[in-house]
Amino acid sequence: MKSKRKTGVIFDKVGVTLSIIESIRPTIKDNLINLMVNNDHDDYVVRYYKGQRYGNNFEFRVPADNGIGYFNLKVSIYPRCKAHNFIRFEFNPTKLGADGELKLRDLLIKILGMKMARAIYYEGCLTRVDNCKEQDLI
């Protein structure tokens, strides 16, 4: 029996940044902290840590029907470089699953508010795209 090769390129990680004015940063950080403290762990789990490039990083582990049971959304705010004025979101689009897009949108609205969440699509900058080649032997 001859093997058939099936290959495909998938996105492994996507990073998007959105410029935010200084006066809005504390509100967004408060929203992130409230989501971390006042959450139902059935909806998501949040981990907070400080990084080298950003002073505040929040990693959301969100349940999803994608085969592994969850997807991660990383939110970074307050870059160490004071000249930068943006918030960064990173996630793996292939792990969102069928309901992951809605959950991602709902989290963005809770973090940023409706107006700024919509602005991501029009004003956000795609700053990272990792892809990989997937091969299966059948």
Topology readout:
Layout: E1 5-19, H1 25-37, E2 45-49, E3 54-63, E4 70-79, E5 86-91, H2 97-112, H3 114-123, E6 125-137
Antiparallel strand pairs: 1-5, 1-6, 2-3, 3-4, 4-5
DSSP, total strands: 6
How far apart the termini lie comes to 10 Å
Helix content: 25-40%
**Strand order within the widest sheet?**
2-3-4-5-1-6
Counting helices, strands and paired strands, the structural category is alpha+beta
Mean pLDDT: 87
Write the H/E string, N to C. Answer: EHEEEEHHE
Shape: globular
- What's the total helix number? 3
Sheet with the most strands, sense and barrel status: 6 strands, antiparallel
Rg of Cα set: 17 Å
Q: Residue ranges: pLDDT <50 for 5 or more in a row?
A: none
Strand content: 35-45%
Please tell me about this protein's structure.
With 138 residues, the chain is of the alpha+beta class. Strands 2-3-4-5-1-6 form a 6-stranded antiparallel beta sheet, covered by helices on one side. The chain has helices at 25-37, 97-112, 114-123; strands at residues 5-19, 45-49, 54-63, 70-79, 86-91, 125-137.
Structural features:
138 residues, alpha+beta, 6 strands, six-stranded antiparallel sheet
How would you sum up this structure in a few lines?
The chain has about 140 residues and is an alpha+beta fold. The chain has helices spanning about 25-35, 95-110, 115-125, and strands spanning about 5-20, 45-50, 55-65, 70-80, 85-90, 125-135. It has three helices and six strands.
